[in-house]
Amino acid sequence: MKIIYTICGEGIGHAARSKAVLDHIFADHEIQILAGHRAYEYLKRHYAHVQRIASFRIAYWRNRVTSIGTFFLNLYFFPQIIFSLVRTILLIKKFKPDIIIDDFSWVGGYAALFTKTHMVTIDNQHIITNTQQEEKKFLLDRLKSRIVIKWFVPRADKHLITTFFNPKIIKNNAILIPPLLRNEILDLHPRKGGYVFLYQTSKTNKKLLQILKSLNVPCIVYGFDKSETDGSLIFKRSFQQSFYEDLANSKAIVLNGGFTLITEALYLKKPILAFPVSHQYEQILNAMELKKLGYGEYYLKPSAEVIKTFMSKLSIYEENLHRLTFDYQKPFRVIDAALKDTLKETKHEQT
User: Which residues are CB-neighbours of 90 under 8 A, at least 6 positions away?
Assistant: First the structure.
């Protein structure tokens, strides 16, 4: 089966999830990998012939998504994105894939639309558009997010949606699946160390670092693209091999609200303190569900008080986490079935 796999370049989460899928399907299919920005940098370390595509990005300011900054940032990159779309369409004409698998890549979505190629999405973003959301507090952020998602992915044959909670599905072509984890995570043997693992999507949340340092909380910090020590904070670069061991041996995890790292922390049974990026509804939703299930806490703004409260309740979160189970092989069975069904449809259309 011929497959083109297109991957969003914002953050590492899309690349990490896609690697789990690629490791499963790579040996049995002929695959072209197209990845943007940070996803390209990550995946080229693991696969030969990964092609770079331009992708939309998010601009941050003081741990908030800035709409104006995001607009001008992507206005600058837009010619490159259009060029990537044209290159992808030409690749489709030449390679003739049976299917496009897409992890929230604008280029992949529109290349599939313009060439009428079958497409299956594998992401967590479509939980916002394809399932029932009942909270009212962040209604405007949710509506904006729904518009962006529908614009990013105008159509797909199936939406395979990774999730750690169970909302009601409202679209017939949506399937909820457990989290997709890399082998690097599944092979870990976690223990409880004496430090907190800290990862931030946005490098602008300096206040959180100042508070942790003032409380003298030992932390190993990723996401700030530097290697240095500052008081109780040890900074490391994100692509270091030590990332996995540092994650597995921490006593708790502090993050924004990215789906992939949350699900990796859940697998490792680590309590989570989330400070979702303001106006990024996907992170807010993940953080709210995390708290609702009793696996950690979330707050919109960091303070010494909330960090102390979280640290005092680690044993409660650990007890809840030890009752958590997922069938981590189920996603691969669902993916195999989706690919098989799509191949049947393709062959039927050709006869």
Answer: none
49 burial (CB, 10 Å; 0-12 / 13-18 / 19+) is exposed
Domain borders along the chain are: 2-181+328-350, 184-321
Give the ranges where the chain is alpha helix by DSSP (H).
13-25, 37-43, 67-95, 106-115, 127-130, 139-152, 183-186, 206-214, 242-248, 259-267, 281-292, 304-312, 314-321, 330-350
Q: Which CATH architecture has domain 184-321?
A: 3-Layer(aba) Sandwich (3.40)
pLDDT tens digits, 20-77? 999 999 989 999 999 999 999 999 999 988 999 998 887 777 777 787 888 888 788 8
Do 2-181+328-350 and 184-321 fold alike per CATH?
yes
Q: Estimate the share of the chain in helix, then strand, then coil, as percent rounded to the nearest 5.
A: 45, 20, 35
CATH of 2-181+328-350 among 2.80.10.50, 1.10.10.10, 3.40.50.2000, 3.30.365.10: 3.40.50.2000
Taking all residues of the chain, what is their mean pLDDT, rounded to a whole number? 93
**pLDDT tens column, 222-246:** 988 889 999 999 999 876 679 999 9
CA-CA distance, 66 to 43, in Å (whole number)?
A: 28
Q: Which of 74, 13, 83, 86 is closest to 43 using CA atoms?
A: 13
Backbone φ and ψ of 294, nearest 5°: 85, 25
- The letter for the amino acid at 25 is I
Q: Which residue, chain included where needed, has tokens 């601009």?
A: 59
